[in-house]
Sequence to fold (149 residues):
Amino acid sequence: MPPSTSSSRTRILLVEDNPLDARATLRALEGLAHPHDAEHLVNGSEALTALSRHAQSDSIPDLVLLDLNASGMRGLEVLQAIGSDQLLRDIPVVILSTSDSQADIDTALQNGARTYFIKPRSLDGWTDIIAGLDAIVGGTAPPTPTADS
Fold:
């Protein structure tokens, strides 16, 4: 089942264990062109529990923002679990990470991430990320890149 589009507000699930990064991300999301509601969870286990609950109530998020290095269950494990779940696999998952390792980027994309953004060090650095998220939410983003492209 694809993410719900019945609401005019985009539902975003942020999985971020660092409180400063979470605050910066939530603040940057205020720049989205699309009205949205954001739910913040601090680890991957909580995220999978919440996604399962949302799937059962037919309120699947429209977008998941996932910290690759989240505590508890790692972001890659969460990404793989989402991709293997029939009800969740169509949710676009965007990786937000401090890692600029090409291996991390390739692995995330190979495991179904819609795209990968390196977390900016300042609020000014969020401009391109917000533009990319607007394109994903608005359905104008190009197809998911692969590690080969």
Remarks:
- The longest strand covers residues 10-15.
- The chain is about 35% helix and 15% strand.
- The beta strands are 10-15, 36-41, 63-67, 93-97, 115-118.
